[in-house]
Design a protein that fits this description.
The chain is mainly α. The chain is 79% helix and 0% strand. The chain has one domain.
Amino acid sequence: MHNKTLAMARLLIARLERLSVDSYWAHQASGLRRSLMRCVDELEKMPPQAEESHRRLERLMRRGFDILERAARELGDPGR
Protein backbone atom coordinates (compact mmCIF):
# COMPACT_ATOMS: atom_id res chain seq x y z
CA MET A 1 0.00 0.00 0.00
CA HIS A 2 2.85 2.36 0.77
CA ASN A 3 4.06 2.50 -2.86
CA LYS A 4 0.52 2.80 -4.24
CA THR A 5 -0.26 5.67 -1.89
CA LEU A 6 2.93 7.51 -2.84
CA ALA A 7 2.20 6.96 -6.54
CA MET A 8 -1.32 8.34 -6.08
CA ALA A 9 0.08 11.34 -4.20
CA ARG A 10 2.49 12.06 -7.07
CA LEU A 11 -0.37 11.84 -9.56
CA LEU A 12 -2.43 14.20 -7.43
CA ILE A 13 0.47 16.67 -7.27
CA ALA A 14 0.69 16.62 -11.07
CA ARG A 15 -3.07 17.15 -11.47
CA LEU A 16 -3.12 20.03 -9.00
CA GLU A 17 -0.30 21.68 -10.94
CA ARG A 18 -2.42 21.66 -14.10
CA LEU A 19 -5.24 23.79 -12.66
CA SER A 20 -5.83 26.97 -14.62
CA VAL A 21 -4.00 29.96 -13.18
CA ASP A 22 -7.26 31.90 -13.48
CA SER A 23 -9.00 29.52 -11.09
CA TYR A 24 -9.54 30.44 -7.47
CA TRP A 25 -8.62 26.85 -6.69
CA ALA A 26 -5.17 27.12 -8.32
CA HIS A 27 -4.04 29.39 -5.49
CA GLN A 28 -5.40 26.94 -2.92
CA ALA A 29 -3.70 24.07 -4.72
CA SER A 30 -0.32 25.76 -4.79
CA GLY A 31 0.31 25.58 -1.05
CA LEU A 32 -1.20 22.13 -0.83
CA ARG A 33 1.08 20.87 -3.62
CA ARG A 34 4.14 22.05 -1.70
CA SER A 35 2.90 20.29 1.44
CA LEU A 36 2.20 17.11 -0.50
CA MET A 37 5.66 17.14 -2.11
CA ARG A 38 7.33 17.64 1.28
CA CYS A 39 5.30 14.83 2.84
CA VAL A 40 6.05 12.44 -0.04
CA ASP A 41 9.77 13.25 0.25
CA GLU A 42 9.68 12.56 3.99
CA LEU A 43 7.84 9.27 3.54
CA GLU A 44 10.28 8.08 0.89
CA LYS A 45 13.09 8.45 3.43
CA MET A 46 11.18 6.88 6.35
CA PRO A 47 10.31 3.30 7.15
CA PRO A 48 6.83 2.21 5.99
CA GLN A 49 5.66 2.14 9.62
CA ALA A 50 5.70 5.95 10.01
CA GLU A 51 2.00 6.14 10.96
CA GLU A 52 1.74 9.85 11.67
CA SER A 53 3.27 10.77 8.31
CA HIS A 54 0.87 8.39 6.53
CA ARG A 55 -2.10 9.99 8.27
CA ARG A 56 -0.81 13.44 7.32
CA LEU A 57 -0.42 12.35 3.70
CA GLU A 58 -3.95 10.94 3.66
CA ARG A 59 -5.37 14.21 5.03
CA LEU A 60 -3.46 16.22 2.43
CA MET A 61 -4.63 13.91 -0.34
CA ARG A 62 -8.27 14.20 0.73
CA ARG A 63 -7.91 17.98 0.59
CA GLY A 64 -6.25 17.77 -2.82
CA PHE A 65 -9.01 15.63 -4.28
CA ASP A 66 -11.56 18.05 -2.82
CA ILE A 67 -9.83 20.97 -4.55
CA LEU A 68 -9.76 19.08 -7.87
CA GLU A 69 -13.45 18.30 -7.56
CA ARG A 70 -14.35 21.91 -6.79
CA ALA A 71 -12.18 23.19 -9.64
CA ALA A 72 -13.92 20.78 -12.01
CA ARG A 73 -17.32 22.03 -10.86
CA GLU A 74 -16.16 25.59 -11.48
CA LEU A 75 -15.46 24.65 -15.11
CA GLY A 76 -18.93 23.25 -15.55
CA ASP A 77 -20.04 20.83 -18.23
CA PRO A 78 -17.76 21.18 -21.27
CA GLY A 79 -20.52 19.80 -23.51
CA ARG A 80 -22.76 22.80 -22.88
